[in-house]
Amino acid sequence: MLGYETAEMIKEQQIELSEQSRGEQSGSGEFIWYWDFGDGYTSSDKSPTHTYETPGNYQINLTVWDDDNIPCNFTQHVQVLNLIADYTTDKNGGHINETITFTDTSEHKYTITNWTWDFGDGNYSYTQNTEHSYAENNNYNVTLTVKDTQDNTHQCSQRISIEQNLLIYNNYIIK
Q: 46, 89, 102, 113 — which has fewest CB within 10 A?
């Protein structure tokens, strides 16, 4: 899980962490691991699990010492939320007037009570899962905003590319 981008996760969701060392080992290959999860908890396991109880921004720090007592440090930022908006589509794009299905895959601690789909073309939907087709070729940012029973909100966006329908007849392109 250690990387450069901030990872988002749900409160009370257990995460599994693993140290992915690369390179050659010198000496006996004995390592010491020290994980600091940024919320007062630590571990000396090589691949620990941890659960954040409170939403917030945390910095996970891993220090690994080799058998020569030389430390190597890694950092991962984690944002713990009660709600994470996410969705999938049956297509990454399409053609004018072609139906695209949008499926909510949001993660949540509390029950989601509201879904707002903004298709980027002035049209909206308020159902959990929906379909939409576009009248013009263009790139559209589709945004899903979700709200739960505790008034937590979160949104995510993906870009959809719509192309003009083309008809080829006797080696001629007819638009």
A: 113
Q: Which two tokens stand for residue 154?
A: 């979160």
Task: Answer whether 146's CB lies under 8 Å from 112's CB.
Answer: yes
User: Quick one: tokens of 67?
Assistant: 């058998």
* Stated length of the chain: 175
pLDDT per position as a tens digit, 124-157:
999 999 999 999 999 999 999 999 999 999 999 9
Q: Where do the domains of the chain lie, and which CATH numbers do they carry?
A: 7-81 (2.60.40.10), 83-167 (2.60.40.10)
Q: Is the pLDDT of residue 23 over 50?
A: no
Contact 42, 35 (CB under 8 A): yes
28 burial via Cβ count (<10 Å: 0-12, 13-18, 19+)? exposed
Helix (H, G, I), strand (E, B) or coil at 134: coil
Is this model's pTM higher than 0.85 or not?
Answer: no
- Helix locations, 67-138, DSSP H: none
Task: Give phi and psi for 43, each to the nearest 5.
Answer: -150, 150
- pLDDT tens by residue, 97-120: 999 999 999 999 899 999 999 999
- In sequence order, which residues have a C-beta less than 8 Å from that of residue 151 and are 6 or more positions away? none
**Residue in this structure with the two tokens 């263009």, named with its chain if needed:** 138
